[in-house]
Amino acid sequence: MKRAVFKNRRLPYLLVLPQLAVTLAFFFWPAFESLRLSFFRTSPFGDKRLFIGLDNFRKLVVDPDYYRSILNSFVFASGVTALALGTGLFVAALATQKVRGLAMYRAAVLWPYGIAPPVAGIIFLFIFHPSYGVLPYWLSFVTAYEFNWLLKGWVAMALVVVATAWTHVGYNIAFFLAGLLAIPASVLEAASVDGAGPVRRFRSIVFPLLSPITFYLLVVNMIFAFFGAFGVIHAVTQGGPGRATEIMVFKAYKDGFIGLNLGSSAAQSVVLMVVVIVLTALQFRFVEKRVTY
Amino acid sequence: MKRSASIVGVLTAAVLLAAPAPAAAKTEIHFWHAMGGQLGEATNELVRQFNQSQAEYEVKALNKGTYPEVLTAAIAAYRQKNPPHIVQVFDVGTQTMLLSGAVYPIFQLTREQEIAIDWNDFIKPVTGYYSKDGNLYSMPFNSSSPILYVNRDAFQKAGLPDRPPATWREVGEASKKILAAGAAKCGFTTSWPSWTMLENTFPWHDQPFATNANGYTGLDTTLLINGEFGVKHIGQLAAWQKEGVFSYGGRMGQPDPKFINGDCAMLVQSSAVIGGFKKSLKFEWGTGQLPHWGPPYRKQNTVVGGATLWVMKGQKASDYPGVARFMKFLAEPHQQMWWHVTTGYLPITHSAIKNLETGHHFKKNPEQWTALSQLTAKPTPNSLGHRLGNFVQIREAIEGELENIFAGTKTAKQGLDDAVAKGNEILKEFAASNRP
Question: Predicted confidence band at A3 (pLDDT cuts at 50, 70, 90)?
Answer without folding.
Answer: low
